[in-house]
Specification:
By secondary structure, the chain is α+β, with helices and mostly antiparallel strands. The chain is built from two helices and two strands. It has one domain. The protein is 51% helix and 29% strand. The protein is elongated. The model has no long low-confidence stretch (mean pLDDT 87).
């Protein structure tokens, strides 16, 4: 990669950590104990990709 391509890649990766996804949310809970409050949370594009990787690698 050229220095310009590296800079563009790093910049877009950094932006993906800050931009909230309009398409995806993640189902979360406050704690692991049964009966804890659960909700949906908007997440960044980067978090969405990391979560999908986590779920796919568990199976």
């Amino acid at each position: 990669m050229s220095p310009r391509e590296q800079w563009t890649f790093i910049r877009r990766l950094d932006l993906s950590k800050r931009i909230l996804s309009n398409r995806y949310v993640i189902y979360t809970s406050e704690s692991a104990s049964p009966g804890s409050r659960k909700s949906f949370r908007r997440v960044s594009v980067y978090d969405t990709a990391a979560y999908m990787h986590y779920v796919c690698s568990k199976t």
